[in-house]
Amino acid sequence: MSEYLNAWNLKEKDFPSDGSLEDKLLFCVQYAVLSPSTYNTQPWFFRVGSDYIDIYADRRYGLPVIDPDDRMLELSCGSTLYCLCIALRNFGFVPDIELLPDSDNSDLMARVGVEFNPDKAILSVGEKELFNVITKRHGSRSVFTDKNIDAVALHKLQKVVEEHDSWLHICDDDEKKQIFQMVAEADAVQASSKPFRRELAAWVHPMRKYSGDGMPHYNMGFKEVMGDFTPSVIRRFDMDGKKVGVEEMMEATPILAVIGANETLSKGRLSCGEAYMHMGLQAEVLGISLSSLGQVTEVPDLRLRLHDVIDCHGRAHLVLRMGYTKSKTYTPRRSLSQVVEFVGGRKIDVSKYNNCSGTGFFGKIGKLFLAK
Ligand SMILES: Cc1cc2nc3c(=O)[nH]c(=O)nc-3n(C[C@H](O)[C@H](O)[C@H](O)COP(=O)(O)O)c2cc1C
């Protein structure tokens, strides 16, 4: 499984300055695939042309039980779009984004026109910091320390989300308690569904180590996940394999927030995905860990109740825990040759790319990172 962790071993200095335009664009795509996605499904596909990169939703990686409308799948594509554009700008490209450019092709999420113009593609100091943490960011499933997040940092996170026609609602204590009760309800509803448990079992399966996706670090067998106790252990957060109750979730979560978009449907999902990635990188810069709780917005009745509790407009997409932790777990990424094609038909030389070979830092100590 370790070779798939090499994706995190990207070095800015390895940018192929003397390479072809296609080589340069491919290098940038390596950053884009480090984006978060539901169950680490990585539901994106890139077509690299001479002056554009198309991002497709790869609906083969849909999750029909928890995400029947591909809402979170498209949100994940928005995340990879944001990450791609920061990387492009870092390496001298000016990206020109068109969301949903082809009304006859609902899989084409975005076309990113690229002009190589280092004089124009300048990252601010803050944006450079965001670029620098793309290879460090990771979601957390830990208990957070009781250290609070200060108001300035929270305000900063809200501001970056608002840049993408989205919002970040910070919950007060009463809302926090109500939402954690809803998390428990959502877990109970979902865990009682065999199709839900079956779908989850497929993505935490140890054999995922051979495909470079999913969450193989849970190292849980099929029978274990099919038991209706386990899913909420996985989806809330780790506490030595114990299921945590509402009070414990409250204690281990300094801040609970909800992220959503002003617009609904695909455009709102993509914007919210961009906001989610931007916020994830900003949080990493500030040393704050994020943990996503998808269950409340996956169960229709509970999502509507969530909207009432926080009195929001548009569409609430994800509940987020925020806090501080030292724990680091990286998830694997599929190899580039599985997620990219060149428009002209050129083949990807797999020997040149980090996540296509089994060597390197992450390759060697991958087991450590994946160990729970
Ligand atoms: C739309 C969306 C929903 C998610 N829902 C959950 C969730 O309910 N529980 C959870 O532990 N992680 C959730 N995650 C986090 C993913 O599991 C995580 O991004 C993925 O495993 C890749 O890991 P990384 O973020 O560390 O790169 C979600 C992520 C996205 C984008």
Could you please describe the fold and organization of this structure?
With 372 residues, this protein is an alpha+beta fold. It folds into two domains: 2-135 and 336-356, NADH Oxidase (3-Layer(aba) Sandwich), CATH 3.40.109; 151-192 and 228-323, NADH Oxidase (3-Layer(aba) Sandwich), CATH 3.40.109.10. 40% of the residues lie in helices and 15% in strands. The protein has helices at residues 21-32, 71-90, 125-132, 151-162, 173-191, 194-203, 222-226, 230-235, 246-251, 265-286, 295-298, 300-310, 336-339, 360-370, and strands at 44-48, 52-57, 93-99, 108-116, 166-170, 255-261, 289-293, 315-323, 340-342. A hairpin with a 3-residue loop joins strand 1 (44-48) and strand 2. The site of flavin mononucleotide has 19 residues, from helix 2 and strand 7.
Q: What is the secondary structure topology, with strand pairs?
A:
Blueprint (H helix, E strand, L loop, with lengths): L20 H12 L11 E5 L3 E6 L13 H20 L2 E7 L8 E9 L8 H8 L18 H12 L3 E5 L2 H19 L2 H10 L18 H5 L3 H6 L10 H6 L3 E7 L3 H22 L2 E5 L1 H4 L1 H11 L4 E9 L12 H4 E3 L17 H11 L2
Parallel strand pairs: 1-9
Antiparallel strand pairs: 1-2, 2-4, 3-4, 5-6, 6-8, 7-8
Helix pairs in contact: 1-2, 2-3, 2-10, 4-10, 5-12
The site of flavin mononucleotide has 19 residues, from helix 2 and strand 7.
